[in-house]
Hints:
Rossmann fold; alpha+beta; paz domain; 912 residues; seven-stranded antiparallel sheet; 26% helix
Amino acid sequence: MSQNTGRGRGRGRGRGRGQITQANLAGASVSSTSSKQNKTEIEETKSEFMTSTLTSVESQPEETKQITLFDPNTQFPEKPKKRFNLGQQFSVIANHFRINLKKNFKVIQYDVSITDSRQKEVLSAKIGKAMIMEYLKQFVVYSNKILYDFKKTLISLIELTTKQFEFEVDGKKFKAIFQAVETSKSLTIESNKPLYDVEQIRILQMLMTQSLRLNNQVLNYANSFFNLRQKPIEIGLNLDLRQGAFLSVRPSELGLTLNLNMATVALNRGDRNLIDVACEFFDTKYRQCNPKDLKLKISQNNFELLKFLKNITIRDHNKKLVKIENFYMNANDYSFKVKDKTMKCKDFFKMKYNIELKYPELPLITIGNNTHIPIEVCTTVTDRRSNLNPIEQSNMIRNANIKPNDRKQEIMNLFQGINLNADPILREFGINIDLRMTQLEASKIKGAKIEYGNKSIEPNTGRWDNKDKIFYDTKSVSKWIVIDFSGLDETSMKQYIKNFVSTAKLHSIGMANQLAILSGRNDQDYEIIMKFIEQKIQEFKVEFLLIILKNKDQKIYQIVKQIGDIKYGVITQCVDQSAIMKRDRDTGHFILNPTVGQLNSNICLKLNSKLGGTNFKLSSDDLNFKNYLKELYDSNVMIFGIDVNHPSPGPKKSTDPNAPKIFESVAAVVGSVDKNCCYYPACVLNQKNTERSALELVYHLNLAVFELITKYKKLNQKLPERLIFFRDGVSEGQFKPVRDHEMNEIRKACEKIESGYFPKISYIVVQKRHHTRLFPVKKEDQAMSGKFENQNVPPGTVVDTLIVTPDKFDFFVCSHLGIQGTSKPCHYFLLHDENNFDSNKLILFSFYLCHIYARSTTSVSYPAPTYYADLCAERGRVYNLNEMNFKKEIDGKYETSLIEIHPNLKDRMFYI
């Protein structure tokens, strides 16, 4: 069965920051015999517009091909002729600069192959950069005419006459060969063209950033650039925040635009001896430490230090980049055979490298392949750190949060500092850029009318409160206990629990008195803690467990969720002591936090949802709802959210060195089962495969969709007639393969439910990770925080012209009130539609769904089902830390495990 229903064509605050200037764009040349390289190894990533490497249905190996129920030739819905016309119009500025192509130009594409002296291919960005800089130095005729991605692709305005080139980096010899790609010989990029394809956008992106990437004083990660001359901001132990520029070429209704934004990155501080870093770790954690103290400190705190050091890339004595895996013996005691002679590690380093170890008594570090080296021969490397602790995250957010007016000025400072119009490469290709950001018209829609159990409200500022409000549909708790792992005193605990119960009753949640308040051991013996919790669940036969944590203990949190969600089917809620108590300024004693009532009201939002209740819903009396959405809601509609979470950036390690690399991801799918589209049970999928690229797919999506539609049918005694999917986390280069695969999986699930079951499906991608920002032109159009303007666009701001794509049905909506920093609108793309959405209906629908996020009295930044899928995927990471109950489906190189939530909870919003 196949159907083509497509309708058209596809597609930190502060002043005095150092700037990336044109003076820095020249870049240092690289000698053909020796190379002084930037100390940071830069691995380039593909542009968001590059052709995706995802495995689509039609390109899968024979053994994994699927029955095609969705026609892959279905085109994306075309851009609607009639745009959004609800609400009040006002002017905004977007951080898009129009790109002007003065002339057409033809380019020749070359495939670049770099090999070392052993004829082995090299794909290092460092080596690629060294090669092209030396090539341009020797062959000046190609200056400003060549673009190179430092890997495999070279673009030239003229034909290369020298197609083989030998060079040296750090004394090592390499050879580069340039092979023309035949299909590109006539590739022409035309000026004033309405549409540009993926390959042309990729070339233009290389054009915009080539000079920056050649500059040794500029650090480059994907499309972000950081000036190394700028003083960094220290945000943690051996951790700096750098601020720079993000540049991306975007196709739009204006033509081509340069999307320019501020960028931030957390970087490990480089060129530091690992002993100094270890000493600083213990200085911070305990007391003053020097290298002589390290042996004792490491023996006492092995796990803590190792956990910290695993976040840092190091350079060993051979200048090889490695990661630390463990500690091992020491250089005095560790011996091994060298040419049939047993030799101590410290003696080997003296003989082989002429290194006299100063601290041979310190533990060695293990760096893989059973290799152990002294800690003192290692230095840190400047590279990104992804796993930040809460303090580091807070410091980064605080420094990255820039008020809108300040951000707008900083963007202009970056634009003037980079000075692309003076770039000789852009001049050679006949390109210049407008000097001003784009001004355009936006619309402001009123917030949705919200209905509680006892009243309706009309919030127009993106925020409201629960005061005096009974939840729309409430549930009750009969058996529950409290376990305190924080050491809270008895009086404070009783005060808190009394407030919690009374707050729940104010919202009409039935709360029996707790059966017990128990003190749990917090001695970090987590096995004992787990057994204690399990024992108390069984002893009291509870349905709800309230846990008080100390210092946001993540390990106890993980144990609680695994036990509650998977093993016993008990609703759990964790609260940190820091939210309950605060230090009195006058006495210095800890007292009950005056805001504890608000805390408990927020907890009640979560508790009622976990119990199966609904806190509030969209009011059917809302005028826009009546005119545009009532028909949709009355037609047995089911709304889904889909998200994929990546627990680790690399492959899962195996004890078998010959085993294939296994990449893991956690996918979550939620689906509404009630007529108000407010209640979303979920499915969690653990995905394993041998291809990193396939992680973005929900490969066996049919498992989750089948289960969720079955829940809907069980509750409503009928099947949904319309399915609307909000998909998070898909970049534009992945639109077609992801949509084709997942639409096919959705159709497969429908066919499994009932032969001939063919509901109307719409598939919408929600993008959060983009760099478009909107700034109100007039002060009176700014959002209000209390009595004051906060410089952001107001909630309900819609943009669907000029800066949107020229060919796809896409739009921006800023649905939340930005309190800190600059608000980021959500970017929506309609990739498949059988429900005849027009602009007014789809934009209003998406915006109104931002008002029903059950755990918050705000209009959130993206639709509630997408938010729920994100929460659920994050919960899946907790399950993924330990092997839990999995129902597996294996298909070729892909393995999907449907995590078995306990029957008591699988129809509830356990994840919220």
